[in-house]
Design brief:
The protein is an alpha+beta fold. It is built from twelve helices and eight strands. It is extended and about 95 Å long.
Length: 412
Protein backbone atom coordinates (compact mmCIF):
# COMPACT_ATOMS: atom_id res chain seq x y z
CA UNK A 1 0.00 0.00 0.00
CA UNK A 2 2.77 2.42 0.94
CA UNK A 3 4.67 1.64 -2.25
CA UNK A 4 1.57 2.37 -4.33
CA UNK A 5 1.15 5.77 -2.68
CA UNK A 6 4.79 6.64 -3.41
CA UNK A 7 4.39 5.52 -7.02
CA UNK A 8 1.21 7.56 -7.36
CA UNK A 9 2.94 10.70 -5.99
CA UNK A 10 5.87 10.30 -8.38
CA UNK A 11 3.60 9.80 -11.38
CA UNK A 12 1.34 12.67 -10.33
CA UNK A 13 4.20 15.17 -9.98
CA UNK A 14 5.72 14.03 -13.26
CA UNK A 15 2.50 14.54 -15.20
CA UNK A 16 1.59 17.77 -13.42
CA UNK A 17 4.94 19.48 -13.98
CA UNK A 18 4.89 18.45 -17.63
CA UNK A 19 1.45 20.04 -18.07
CA UNK A 20 2.53 23.13 -16.14
CA UNK A 21 5.83 23.70 -17.94
CA UNK A 22 5.02 22.63 -21.52
CA UNK A 23 5.89 23.84 -24.20
CA UNK A 24 9.32 24.23 -22.57
CA UNK A 25 11.88 24.07 -24.14
CA UNK A 26 10.20 24.52 -27.52
CA UNK A 27 9.17 28.11 -26.82
CA UNK A 28 12.85 29.03 -27.26
CA UNK A 29 12.72 28.05 -30.95
CA UNK A 30 13.65 30.94 -33.31
CA UNK A 31 11.83 32.60 -36.23
CA UNK A 32 8.60 32.96 -34.23
CA UNK A 33 8.09 29.18 -34.06
CA UNK A 34 8.40 29.03 -30.28
CA UNK A 35 6.09 32.01 -29.85
CA UNK A 36 3.48 30.43 -32.12
CA UNK A 37 3.66 27.12 -30.24
CA UNK A 38 3.31 28.90 -26.90
CA UNK A 39 0.27 30.75 -28.22
CA UNK A 40 -1.35 27.46 -29.28
CA UNK A 41 -0.76 25.87 -25.85
CA UNK A 42 -2.00 28.99 -24.01
CA UNK A 43 -5.14 29.08 -26.15
CA UNK A 44 -5.73 25.40 -25.40
CA UNK A 45 -5.68 25.98 -21.63
CA UNK A 46 -7.66 29.20 -21.97
CA UNK A 47 -10.49 27.36 -23.75
CA UNK A 48 -10.57 24.70 -21.02
CA UNK A 49 -10.57 27.33 -18.24
CA UNK A 50 -13.31 29.34 -19.96
CA UNK A 51 -15.42 26.21 -20.50
CA UNK A 52 -15.21 25.01 -16.91
CA UNK A 53 -15.69 28.46 -15.38
CA UNK A 54 -18.74 29.08 -17.59
CA UNK A 55 -20.23 25.61 -17.07
CA UNK A 56 -19.61 25.10 -13.36
CA UNK A 57 -19.24 28.61 -11.95
CA UNK A 58 -21.71 30.33 -14.22
CA UNK A 59 -19.34 33.26 -14.47
CA UNK A 60 -16.58 33.20 -17.11
CA UNK A 61 -13.15 34.10 -15.75
CA UNK A 62 -11.44 36.87 -17.61
CA UNK A 63 -7.87 36.26 -18.74
CA UNK A 64 -5.81 39.36 -18.01
CA UNK A 65 -2.06 39.73 -18.49
CA UNK A 66 -0.95 42.75 -16.48
CA UNK A 67 2.13 41.57 -14.62
CA UNK A 68 0.27 39.54 -12.00
CA UNK A 69 0.76 35.77 -11.97
CA UNK A 70 -1.78 35.23 -9.19
CA UNK A 71 -5.02 36.17 -10.95
CA UNK A 72 -8.26 34.18 -10.73
CA UNK A 73 -7.48 32.79 -14.17
CA UNK A 74 -4.05 31.53 -13.02
CA UNK A 75 -5.59 29.72 -10.06
CA UNK A 76 -8.36 28.24 -12.22
CA UNK A 77 -5.75 26.90 -14.64
CA UNK A 78 -3.73 25.58 -11.69
CA UNK A 79 -6.69 23.63 -10.24
CA UNK A 80 -7.66 22.23 -13.64
CA UNK A 81 -4.11 21.00 -14.31
CA UNK A 82 -4.02 19.45 -10.83
CA UNK A 83 -7.30 17.65 -11.47
CA UNK A 84 -6.23 16.35 -14.89
CA UNK A 85 -2.91 15.13 -13.44
CA UNK A 86 -4.74 13.40 -10.61
CA UNK A 87 -7.12 11.57 -12.97
CA UNK A 88 -4.35 10.48 -15.36
CA UNK A 89 -2.27 9.19 -12.42
CA UNK A 90 -5.17 7.09 -11.17
CA UNK A 91 -5.68 5.61 -14.65
CA UNK A 92 -1.98 4.75 -14.93
CA UNK A 93 -2.01 3.00 -11.55
CA UNK A 94 -5.29 1.22 -12.40
CA UNK A 95 -4.12 -0.09 -15.78
CA UNK A 96 -0.73 -1.13 -14.43
CA UNK A 97 1.46 1.17 -16.51
CA UNK A 98 3.62 2.04 -13.51
CA UNK A 99 6.78 0.41 -14.83
CA UNK A 100 6.64 2.37 -18.08
CA UNK A 101 6.37 5.72 -16.33
CA UNK A 102 8.63 5.12 -13.33
CA UNK A 103 11.41 2.99 -14.81
CA UNK A 104 11.68 4.12 -18.41
CA UNK A 105 10.72 7.76 -18.03
CA UNK A 106 11.80 8.64 -14.51
CA UNK A 107 15.28 9.73 -15.56
CA UNK A 108 13.87 11.93 -18.33
CA UNK A 109 11.48 13.63 -15.92
CA UNK A 110 14.33 14.69 -13.62
CA UNK A 111 16.39 15.85 -16.60
CA UNK A 112 13.43 17.86 -17.84
CA UNK A 113 12.82 19.40 -14.39
CA UNK A 114 16.48 20.31 -13.95
CA UNK A 115 16.73 22.02 -17.31
CA UNK A 116 13.42 23.85 -16.88
CA UNK A 117 14.45 25.15 -13.45
CA UNK A 118 17.93 26.06 -14.68
CA UNK A 119 16.75 28.04 -17.72
CA UNK A 120 14.02 29.86 -15.79
CA UNK A 121 16.48 30.89 -13.06
CA UNK A 122 19.05 32.05 -15.59
CA UNK A 123 16.44 34.02 -17.53
CA UNK A 124 15.28 35.98 -14.49
CA UNK A 125 18.87 36.31 -13.31
CA UNK A 126 19.93 38.02 -16.53
CA UNK A 127 17.13 40.56 -16.02
CA UNK A 128 18.68 41.37 -12.64
CA UNK A 129 22.25 41.45 -13.98
CA UNK A 130 21.28 43.88 -16.74
CA UNK A 131 19.26 45.97 -14.26
CA UNK A 132 15.87 45.38 -15.89
CA UNK A 133 13.73 43.48 -13.36
CA UNK A 134 13.87 46.19 -10.69
CA UNK A 135 13.83 49.76 -11.90
CA UNK A 136 15.58 52.65 -10.21
CA UNK A 137 13.31 55.17 -8.42
CA UNK A 138 11.71 57.61 -10.84
CA UNK A 139 11.44 61.34 -10.17
CA UNK A 140 7.84 60.87 -9.07
CA UNK A 141 8.97 58.15 -6.65
CA UNK A 142 11.50 60.51 -5.08
CA UNK A 143 8.88 63.08 -4.10
CA UNK A 144 6.24 60.56 -3.07
CA UNK A 145 5.48 60.21 0.68
CA UNK A 146 6.93 56.95 1.95
CA UNK A 147 3.74 55.96 3.80
CA UNK A 148 1.72 56.06 0.57
CA UNK A 149 3.78 53.24 -0.96
CA UNK A 150 2.73 49.61 -1.04
CA UNK A 151 4.99 46.91 0.34
CA UNK A 152 5.67 45.61 -3.15
CA UNK A 153 6.51 49.15 -4.22
CA UNK A 154 8.99 49.50 -1.35
CA UNK A 155 10.63 46.17 -2.24
CA UNK A 156 10.88 47.02 -5.95
CA UNK A 157 12.43 50.44 -5.33
CA UNK A 158 14.75 49.12 -2.63
CA UNK A 159 16.10 46.49 -5.01
CA UNK A 160 16.24 48.98 -7.86
CA UNK A 161 18.07 51.58 -5.80
CA UNK A 162 21.36 49.68 -6.02
CA UNK A 163 22.51 48.41 -9.41
CA UNK A 164 25.42 46.62 -7.73
CA UNK A 165 23.17 44.61 -5.42
CA UNK A 166 20.84 43.77 -8.31
CA UNK A 167 23.83 42.41 -10.27
CA UNK A 168 25.10 40.50 -7.21
CA UNK A 169 21.70 38.85 -6.60
CA UNK A 170 21.40 38.08 -10.32
CA UNK A 171 24.81 36.39 -10.46
CA UNK A 172 23.98 34.15 -7.49
CA UNK A 173 20.74 33.15 -9.18
CA UNK A 174 22.39 32.70 -12.59
CA UNK A 175 25.12 30.34 -11.41
CA UNK A 176 22.66 28.35 -9.29
CA UNK A 177 20.64 27.73 -12.45
CA UNK A 178 23.71 27.22 -14.64
CA UNK A 179 25.11 24.50 -12.37
CA UNK A 180 21.87 22.54 -12.75
CA UNK A 181 22.64 21.84 -16.39
CA UNK A 182 25.68 19.58 -15.81
CA UNK A 183 25.95 16.15 -14.22
CA UNK A 184 29.02 16.97 -12.15
CA UNK A 185 27.61 20.16 -10.65
CA UNK A 186 23.83 19.81 -10.57
CA UNK A 187 23.72 18.75 -6.90
CA UNK A 188 25.44 21.98 -5.88
CA UNK A 189 23.11 23.85 -8.24
CA UNK A 190 20.05 22.27 -6.60
CA UNK A 191 21.10 23.42 -3.12
CA UNK A 192 21.91 26.90 -4.41
CA UNK A 193 18.62 27.08 -6.32
CA UNK A 194 16.63 25.99 -3.28
CA UNK A 195 18.24 28.72 -1.15
CA UNK A 196 17.68 31.41 -3.78
CA UNK A 197 14.08 30.36 -4.40
CA UNK A 198 13.27 30.09 -0.69
CA UNK A 199 14.28 33.73 -0.30
CA UNK A 200 12.30 34.74 -3.41
CA UNK A 201 9.15 32.96 -2.19
CA UNK A 202 9.47 34.62 1.24
CA UNK A 203 9.78 38.06 -0.40
CA UNK A 204 6.78 37.36 -2.64
CA UNK A 205 4.62 36.29 0.30
CA UNK A 206 5.60 38.90 2.89
CA UNK A 207 5.77 41.82 0.42
CA UNK A 208 2.66 40.68 -1.48
CA UNK A 209 4.37 40.30 -4.86
CA UNK A 210 1.85 38.60 -7.19
CA UNK A 211 4.16 35.84 -8.43
CA UNK A 212 3.55 33.52 -5.48
CA UNK A 213 2.06 30.68 -7.49
CA UNK A 214 4.89 30.59 -10.03
CA UNK A 215 7.71 30.96 -7.48
CA UNK A 216 6.22 28.22 -5.29
CA UNK A 217 6.25 25.89 -8.30
CA UNK A 218 9.94 26.59 -8.81
CA UNK A 219 10.66 26.04 -5.10
CA UNK A 220 8.79 22.71 -5.13
CA UNK A 221 10.72 21.69 -8.27
CA UNK A 222 14.03 22.32 -6.48
CA UNK A 223 12.74 20.43 -3.43
CA UNK A 224 11.82 17.42 -5.62
CA UNK A 225 15.37 17.38 -6.98
CA UNK A 226 16.76 17.50 -3.43
CA UNK A 227 14.51 14.60 -2.35
CA UNK A 228 15.68 12.59 -5.36
CA UNK A 229 19.26 12.62 -4.03
CA UNK A 230 18.46 12.97 -0.34
CA UNK A 231 20.90 10.21 0.65
CA UNK A 232 23.80 12.08 -0.93
CA UNK A 233 22.85 15.32 0.87
CA UNK A 234 22.40 13.59 4.22
CA UNK A 235 25.77 11.92 3.81
CA UNK A 236 27.43 15.22 2.93
CA UNK A 237 25.83 17.51 5.51
CA UNK A 238 25.42 15.09 8.41
CA UNK A 239 28.37 12.73 8.03
CA UNK A 240 30.43 11.92 11.09
CA UNK A 241 33.27 14.34 11.80
CA UNK A 242 36.86 13.39 11.13
CA UNK A 243 38.06 11.23 14.02
CA UNK A 244 41.43 13.02 13.97
CA UNK A 245 39.76 16.22 15.10
CA UNK A 246 38.43 14.59 18.30
CA UNK A 247 40.11 14.68 21.67
CA UNK A 248 41.79 11.36 22.34
CA UNK A 249 40.83 11.12 26.01
CA UNK A 250 37.20 10.65 26.92
CA UNK A 251 37.35 13.14 29.81
CA UNK A 252 38.50 15.89 27.42
CA UNK A 253 35.73 15.05 24.93
CA UNK A 254 33.07 15.12 27.64
CA UNK A 255 34.43 18.35 29.11
CA UNK A 256 34.48 20.02 25.71
CA UNK A 257 30.92 18.85 24.96
CA UNK A 258 29.68 20.12 28.34
CA UNK A 259 31.38 23.50 27.91
CA UNK A 260 30.07 23.85 24.37
CA UNK A 261 26.52 23.01 25.48
CA UNK A 262 26.65 25.54 28.34
CA UNK A 263 27.97 28.28 26.06
CA UNK A 264 25.30 27.62 23.40
CA UNK A 265 22.47 27.55 25.95
CA UNK A 266 23.74 30.71 27.66
CA UNK A 267 24.06 32.55 24.38
CA UNK A 268 20.57 31.53 23.26
CA UNK A 269 18.90 32.32 26.60
CA UNK A 270 20.61 35.66 27.20
CA UNK A 271 20.31 36.70 23.56
CA UNK A 272 16.60 35.87 23.24
CA UNK A 273 15.71 37.23 26.69
CA UNK A 274 17.60 40.49 26.07
CA UNK A 275 15.97 41.00 22.66
CA UNK A 276 12.48 40.37 24.06
CA UNK A 277 13.04 43.00 26.76
CA UNK A 278 14.42 45.52 24.24
CA UNK A 279 11.54 44.80 21.86
CA UNK A 280 9.05 45.60 24.61
CA UNK A 281 10.88 48.83 25.38
CA UNK A 282 11.96 50.16 21.99
CA UNK A 283 10.66 47.80 19.28
CA UNK A 284 7.37 46.79 17.75
CA UNK A 285 5.94 45.56 21.04
CA UNK A 286 6.72 48.81 22.88
CA UNK A 287 3.51 50.34 24.28
CA UNK A 288 2.03 53.28 22.41
CA UNK A 289 0.07 56.14 23.98
CA UNK A 290 -3.32 57.79 23.55
CA UNK A 291 -2.01 60.44 21.12
CA UNK A 292 0.14 58.11 19.01
CA UNK A 293 -0.18 59.27 15.40
CA UNK A 294 0.57 61.94 12.82
CA UNK A 295 -1.30 65.25 13.00
CA UNK A 296 -1.74 67.72 10.15
CA UNK A 297 -2.75 71.21 11.22
CA UNK A 298 -5.97 72.48 9.73
CA UNK A 299 -5.34 75.83 8.03
CA UNK A 300 -5.97 79.03 10.02
CA UNK A 301 -6.81 77.14 13.22
CA UNK A 302 -3.90 78.52 15.28
CA UNK A 303 -4.02 82.07 16.60
CA UNK A 304 -1.78 83.95 19.01
CA UNK A 305 -3.13 87.02 20.74
CA UNK A 306 0.41 88.23 21.53
CA UNK A 307 2.44 87.71 18.36
CA UNK A 308 5.53 89.13 20.05
CA UNK A 309 5.72 86.11 22.35
CA UNK A 310 9.14 84.48 22.54
CA UNK A 311 7.57 81.21 21.46
CA UNK A 312 5.59 82.53 18.51
CA UNK A 313 8.02 81.12 15.94
CA UNK A 314 8.19 77.79 17.76
CA UNK A 315 4.42 77.37 17.54
CA UNK A 316 4.10 77.79 13.77
CA UNK A 317 3.68 74.07 13.12
CA UNK A 318 2.06 72.42 10.15
CA UNK A 319 2.62 68.81 11.25
CA UNK A 320 3.07 67.10 14.61
CA UNK A 321 4.41 63.54 14.68
CA UNK A 322 3.83 61.88 18.04
CA UNK A 323 5.79 58.65 18.03
CA UNK A 324 6.05 56.19 20.91
CA UNK A 325 8.98 57.82 22.67
CA UNK A 326 9.31 61.32 21.21
CA UNK A 327 7.60 64.03 19.17
CA UNK A 328 8.68 65.89 16.03
CA UNK A 329 7.16 69.28 15.20
CA UNK A 330 7.46 70.34 11.55
CA UNK A 331 7.22 74.11 11.04
CA UNK A 332 5.76 75.97 8.08
CA UNK A 333 9.26 76.39 6.62
CA UNK A 334 9.85 72.60 7.00
CA UNK A 335 12.33 73.02 9.89
CA UNK A 336 12.04 70.27 12.47
CA UNK A 337 11.82 70.69 16.22
CA UNK A 338 12.47 67.63 18.39
CA UNK A 339 10.56 67.39 21.65
CA UNK A 340 9.68 65.08 24.51
CA UNK A 341 6.08 64.56 25.52
CA UNK A 342 4.22 63.78 28.73
CA UNK A 343 0.58 62.72 28.45
CA UNK A 344 -1.99 62.71 31.26
CA UNK A 345 -4.99 60.76 29.96
CA UNK A 346 -7.03 61.42 33.12
CA UNK A 347 -6.91 65.22 32.93
CA UNK A 348 -6.38 65.26 29.14
CA UNK A 349 -3.11 67.18 29.43
CA UNK A 350 -0.17 67.21 27.00
CA UNK A 351 3.21 68.70 27.93
CA UNK A 352 5.72 69.24 25.13
CA UNK A 353 9.31 70.02 26.13
CA UNK A 354 12.10 70.83 23.69
CA UNK A 355 14.98 68.36 23.50
CA UNK A 356 17.32 71.28 24.24
CA UNK A 357 15.04 72.48 27.07
CA UNK A 358 14.39 75.67 25.06
CA UNK A 359 10.60 75.58 25.38
CA UNK A 360 7.76 73.93 27.25
CA UNK A 361 4.05 74.01 26.41
CA UNK A 362 1.20 72.75 28.56
CA UNK A 363 -1.89 71.93 26.48
CA UNK A 364 -5.35 70.60 27.14
CA UNK A 365 -6.48 68.21 24.44
CA UNK A 366 -9.61 66.67 22.99
CA UNK A 367 -9.15 63.73 20.64
CA UNK A 368 -11.33 61.64 18.32
CA UNK A 369 -10.47 58.94 15.79
CA UNK A 370 -9.77 61.54 13.12
CA UNK A 371 -9.08 64.87 14.91
CA UNK A 372 -7.07 66.46 17.73
CA UNK A 373 -7.84 69.80 19.37
CA UNK A 374 -5.15 71.50 21.52
CA UNK A 375 -5.79 74.58 23.59
CA UNK A 376 -3.56 76.77 25.77
CA UNK A 377 -4.67 79.91 27.56
CA UNK A 378 -2.35 82.13 29.60
CA UNK A 379 -2.27 85.81 30.57
CA UNK A 380 -0.36 86.61 27.38
CA UNK A 381 -1.34 83.98 24.83
CA UNK A 382 -4.52 82.32 23.66
CA UNK A 383 -3.72 79.38 21.44
CA UNK A 384 -6.01 76.90 19.78
CA UNK A 385 -4.73 74.24 17.40
CA UNK A 386 -6.93 71.92 15.36
CA UNK A 387 -5.35 68.88 13.68
CA UNK A 388 -6.43 66.14 11.34
CA UNK A 389 -5.29 62.82 12.76
CA UNK A 390 -3.75 59.90 10.88
CA UNK A 391 -3.18 56.68 12.79
CA UNK A 392 -0.55 54.15 11.83
CA UNK A 393 -3.03 51.88 10.11
CA UNK A 394 -4.33 54.76 7.97
CA UNK A 395 -1.17 54.73 5.87
CA UNK A 396 -1.36 52.40 2.82
CA UNK A 397 2.09 50.99 3.61
CA UNK A 398 0.90 49.69 6.99
CA UNK A 399 -2.53 48.58 5.80
CA UNK A 400 -1.17 45.27 4.54
CA UNK A 401 -2.19 41.67 4.15
CA UNK A 402 -0.95 38.86 1.94
CA UNK A 403 -3.29 38.42 -1.02
CA UNK A 404 -2.93 35.03 -2.63
CA UNK A 405 -5.17 36.17 -5.49
CA UNK A 406 -4.04 39.46 -7.05
CA UNK A 407 -5.91 40.60 -10.13
CA UNK A 408 -3.48 43.49 -10.49
CA UNK A 409 0.07 44.04 -9.07
CA UNK A 410 0.01 46.59 -6.28
CA UNK A 411 3.43 48.12 -6.87
CA UNK A 412 2.65 51.80 -6.27
Amino acid sequence: MGRRIVNFILIFFGIYFFLYTFPFPFYYLPFGIGQKLSSIVNDFWSNIVFYFSDSFLGNPIEKVRNGSGDTSYDYAEFYIQLSISFLISILIIYFGRIRFFLVKNRMYFFYYLRFYLGFILMGYALSKVFYLQFWEPTLSDLIKPYGESSRMGVLWRFMGLSEGYSIFAGLLQFFSGFLLLFERTYKIGVVGSFGVLLNIVALNIFFDVPVKLFSLHLLIASLILIIKDYKSYISFFFSKPDSKAKFKKKIYRNSFLTLKTILILYFLFSGIDGRIKRQKRFGKRAPSHALYGVYYKVEDSAKLVDTTSNHHDTLTWKTMIMDKNSTILIKENDDRIFANHKIDTIQNKLILTGKKQDFEFDFSYTITDSTLFLSKITTQDSLKLFFKRMKREDFPLMNFETNWINEFPNNR
